[in-house]
Design a protein that fits this description.
Elements lengths: L7 H5 L15 E7 L7 E8 L4 E6 L10 H10 L4 E6 L16 H15 L7 E6 L1 H12 L4 E7 L13 H9 L7 H12 L2 H5 L33 H14 L6 H12 L5 H11 L4 E6 L7 H11 L3 E5 L6 H4 L1 H16 L3
Parallel strand pairs: 3-4, 3-5, 5-6, 6-7, 7-8
Antiparallel strand pairs: 1-2, 2-4
Amino acid sequence: MAFIRPTAEETIKHPAYPSVIWALEPHQKGVVEAAHGRGGPVKISWEIHGDGPTKLVLIMGLAGVKTSWQRQTKYFGHDHGAEYSVLILDNRGMGDSDKPLARYTTSAMAADVVDVLDHVGWTADREVHVVGISLGGMIAQEVACAIPQRLRSLTLVATTPQFESGPAKSWGDALWARIGFVVPKSEEQGIADTSRQLFTDEWLAAPDDAATLPSPKTTPRCGPAPGTPDGEYLPFDTNFQRFQAQELYKKRQKGWFTRQGFLCQLIAAAGHRKTAAQLRSMADRVGRERIMIMHGTADNMITVANGEKLIKYVEPGVGLIVEGMGHAPLMDRPEWFNSVLEERFMAWAKLG
């Protein structure tokens, strides 16, 4: 479906732009000095939304920031904050966390997550549900290898045990495609290129869904939208424009996004390697009945063959190959994605 993409200037002038990042007030927040004794300290920024007994940690992917989870943060940590506590963090290299120039690895980034969990006191056995997407899913694999007994569940979305681009492209071709995200080009072209990797054209062209927006009147601990007369949050014209606005905000927020941080994270993704034996051992210790793996057939960023291999290696209790799903269901089908997670959290709660 062809559609006219707005310019960056048009989107920044849109009345919804000032509130593209929702004012969801965390119940707790802070900065952990992680990585002591392993090249640190590295400051990791974190927030907890909600104060319920079911504890979730959401681990974002390449170039993502805490607010990339805001649809899940709102649902679990605010709409259902009496039931859930949701920990989100900026991985090293992005957002409000440090961006040291170093060789990043998924195991080191996982150790950062564990340092945050230790800091907030989420240390009991079978206490935390870990959800990771893309690079965050690779980090989540390493978290599960490091502290398997502390996981109540593990959900891996659109990720891989080792990147394979499929028969059409070599890993080198795929790596260069990702490096292309930071090769100098117009801001608008870079965001448009990324959007096509993450989403279908049909979804990008569709109207932004006002039903998913928070409201300071009905969403607990939600501040008013700046610039609107009644404080209500406004929709953009299309899904693409909302994604474009989020990217523009991220790239224009001082220090949030740097080429150095992006490339360091990219190197971590490129170097991720988990063998079948390593993943089987992890699954044995976590418990296969506690693991869900989800991948879409329309994923243009990490092809579905990667998810199929991960399912083959892990043999999870739930393995979903979802027809037509792209790389970021947390954004393009959040109501479905949240409902699948919630259903599984309820099932896993029965395992103790």
